[in-house]
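Hypothesis: this fold can be encoded by more than one sequence.
Test: take the structure tokens below, design a sequence, compare later.
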């Protein structure tokens, strides 16, 4: 699909973006490993989460309503998964693959996981190595770093793992493997990453010990099926937040957005940028804080984005780069080298495409520097690199370009935000 975006100087409306991708993945995983039924509402029907659900179906888990936002997962219990008869294809989803490896490591069967061209290039050693220390047997290309990966389930031993990277996927993988080990498995991260796994494990009845950057789980717990209400995804909402902030005349309300503090780093940055936004009707749903966000056009100020906030807004950096083009002063994005190992190298992709749009930007190894405000010329065809967040960030930039832009290979948007284009048209 090619997406054509015409400049638009007014945006208005009240919208609800789809369910949180991280929470949707975890609702199927824990629902499958729990005893009894898990009823999920607001499930994200993006390809990434569907791939997680399909993988569990292949391992004998009955799921009603797959493909819709309301699903019932019939849990098989911690030790009830069955050997899949075919390869588990996890498409474009790093979260599915890394978390699944933690679960598969402790099964009493053999499984193979694979993914698309992008996922097959992403580093898996970051989970394969610590799982190996727990006794897992995982084989793959590049010494076990690249998919396809073969997992021969084993009896796992607990361990304390000091992760060199602040990654919720690494942390969650080890905690999920820890469910199968005897004794206490601990993960210590260098900075706090999103904690949806911890919150949902507790919600499903597992006892965790959380002490700052250290999280421990005791093996062989009993998980109990629950009702899960998935909040709207703040990462998806961010495209609309920024679209409104940089627009001439905008007033948007984004409903029911998940505001877990380990995810909502973008709000901290937008506050520093003097963005005009307000949180309405703050509440708590299944251990996760949510609110509506009202956002207006703003005169943004430049800021430095780096350090401990990075894991709390890692997926929002491409759209923050677009916001930075309209901020007064020099915006610096640093400590964000993790962006280079996402669906594509997101630093290189954003720098290349912003330049194509007529924006001046300096590339750095761990981020970029963007002076502003600058006008976005447009009148060109941009590449998505088959990365949903690059495609959507460029679409938002197109709304304030001087001339229409085109984004090629925009189908990837459906991995995380299937109705992005419709919502854009609505506002
Ligand atoms: O755990 C998760 O649900 C995710 C963690 C992050 O990845 P890393 O753990 O690799 O930083 C994020 O980029 C991804 O979109 C979802
Ligand atoms: C990096 C992302 O997801 P994943 O790692 O699950 O592919 C993302 O959604 O931006």
């Amino acid at each position: 699909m090619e997406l054509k975006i015409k400049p638009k100087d007014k945006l208005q409306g009240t919208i609800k973006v789809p369910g949180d991708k991280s929470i949707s993945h975890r609702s199927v995983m824990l629902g499958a490993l729990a005893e009894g039924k898990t009823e999920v509402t607001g499930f994200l029907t993006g390809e990434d989460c569907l791939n997680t659900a399909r993988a569990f179906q292949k391992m004998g888990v009955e799921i009603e309503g797959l493909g819709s936002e309301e699903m019932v997962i019939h849990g098989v219990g911690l030790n009830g998964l069955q050997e899949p008869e075919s390869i588990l294809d996890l498409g474009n989803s790093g979260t599915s693959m890394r978390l699944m490896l933690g679960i598969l490591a402790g099964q009493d069967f053999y499984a193979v996981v694979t993914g698309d061209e992008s996922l097959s290039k992403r580093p898996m050693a970051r989970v394969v190595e610590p799982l190996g220390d727990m006794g897992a047997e995982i084989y793959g290309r590049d010494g076990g770093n690249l998919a396809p990966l073969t997992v021969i389930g084993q009896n796992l031993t607990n361990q304390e793992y000091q992760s060199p990277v602040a990654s919720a996927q690494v942390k969650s993988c080890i905690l999920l493997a820890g469910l199968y080990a005897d004794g206490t498995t601990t993960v210590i991260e260098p900075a706090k990453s999103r904690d949806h796994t911890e919150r949902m494990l507790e919600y499903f009845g597992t006892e965790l010990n959380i002490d700052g950057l250290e999280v421990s789980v005791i093996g062989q717990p009993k998980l109990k099926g629950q009702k899960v209400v998935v909040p709207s995804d703040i990462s998806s909402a961010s495209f609309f937040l920024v679209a409104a902030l940089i627009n001439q005349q905008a007033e948007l309300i984004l409903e029911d957005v998940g505001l877990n503090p380990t995810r909502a780093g973008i709000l901290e940055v937008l506050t520093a940028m003097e963005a005009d936004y307000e949180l309405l009707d703050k509440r708590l749903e299944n251990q996760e804080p949510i609110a509506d966000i009202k956002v207006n056009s703003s005169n943004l100020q430049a800021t430095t984005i780096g350090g401990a906030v990075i894991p709390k807004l890692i997926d929002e950096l491409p759209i923050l780069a677009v916001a930075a083009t309209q901020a007064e002063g020099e915006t610096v994005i640093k400590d964000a080298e993790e962006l280079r190992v996402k669906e594509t190298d997101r630093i290189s992709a954003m720098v290349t495409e912003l330049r194509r749009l007529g924006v001046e930007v300096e590339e750095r190894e761990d981020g970029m520097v963007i002076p502003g405000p600058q006008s976005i010329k447009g009148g060109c065809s941009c590449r998505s690199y088959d990365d949903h967040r690059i495609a959507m960030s460029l679409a938002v930039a197109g709304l304030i370009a001087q001339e229409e832009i085109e984004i090629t290979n925009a189908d990837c948007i459906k991995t995380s935000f299937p109705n992005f284009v419709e919502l854009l048209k609505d506002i």
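The longest helix spans residues 21-33. The CA atoms of residues 69 and 298 lie 34 Å apart.
Hypothesis status: open.
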